[in-house]
Amino acid sequence: MTNPAAGTDLAALIDHTLLKPEATREDALALAREAEELGTYSICVSPSMLPIETTVKVATVCGFPSGQHAPSIKAAEAADSVAKGADEVDMVINVGLARAGEDQALEAEIRAVREAAPAPVVLKVIIESAALTDEQIVAACEASERAGADFVKTSTGFHPAGGASEHAVQLMRATVGDRLGVKASGGIRTREAAEAMVAAGASRLGLSSSRAILDGGTGTGY
């Protein structure tokens, strides 16, 4: 299967990310200015940083980082973020539901957020792939698609099981085909690793060290 991101400028695939709990509003504004300079697709910041003015797209997170929030709370958080100007919402699933095979409940919580953040808002579903088996990854991607998500995403970058892997990205792409986007995030710290994720099927990248990675160096953090 062809990768829809193949041949695209790497910066244009990046959600330039700042989700550290100690981040200040000044840090978020600096992130936005850097994103504009680098030409990244978007910034991704915590909901408390909204609204934020920038010429790039604005993404935020929902149910972050554990996903162990009631669906109604996730939906309310997403709706509030959209009201404050978010173009995209990256929601964390209840990973326990995926591990327990409770696919209907998983689909229902994703659908609740989708209804709270309707198109044209882009909804990305973080499945925490490193904590799931291949079968659970496939089921979570299928539930995301049924619920109307636009993307499936590997990781929060905060789970002890780890972040993105080429295998997970390949499996997610094989499951959703060209119908949904696939975002790789968590532990991508070199340009080589970023390009490997794109080659595996990622159409978006979550990076906190975008400048270092684009310059060919080694990043830190998310």
UniProtKB/TrEMBL annotation:
Pathway assignment: Carbohydrate degradation; 2-deoxy-D-ribose 1-phosphate degradation; D-glyceraldehyde 3-phosphate and acetaldehyde from 2-deoxy-alpha-D-ribose 1-phosphate: step 2/2
Enzyme class: lyase
Compartment(s) where it occurs, according to its Swiss-Prot or TrEMBL record: Cytoplasm
Keywords, ordered alphabetically: Cytoplasm, Lyase, Schiff base
Catalytic activity: 2-deoxy-D-ribose 5-phosphate = D-glyceraldehyde 3-phosphate + acetaldehyde
Top-rank lineage group of the source organism: Bacteria
Presence of keyword Transferase: no
Principal location listed in the UniProt entry: cytoplasm
Active site residues of this protein: 90, 153, 183
GO MF assignments: deoxyribose-phosphate aldolase activity
Pfam family for this entry, one: DeoC
InterPro entries: Aldolase_TIM, DeoC, DeoC/FbaB/LacD_aldolase, DeoC_typeI
First and last residue of the signal peptide: none
CDD domains referenced in this protein's UniProt entry, alphabetically: DeoC (cd00959)
Keyword Acetylation on entry: no
NCBIfam families: deoC
Role: Catalyzes a reversible aldol reaction between acetaldehyde and D-glyceraldehyde 3-phosphate to generate 2-deoxy-D-ribose 5-phosphate.
HAMAP family tied to this protein: DeoC_type1
Family from the record: Belongs to the DeoC/FbaB aldolase family. DeoC type 1 subfamily.
Protein name from the UniProt record: Deoxyribose-phosphate aldolase
Native species: Brachybacterium rhamnosum
Gene that encodes the chain: deoC
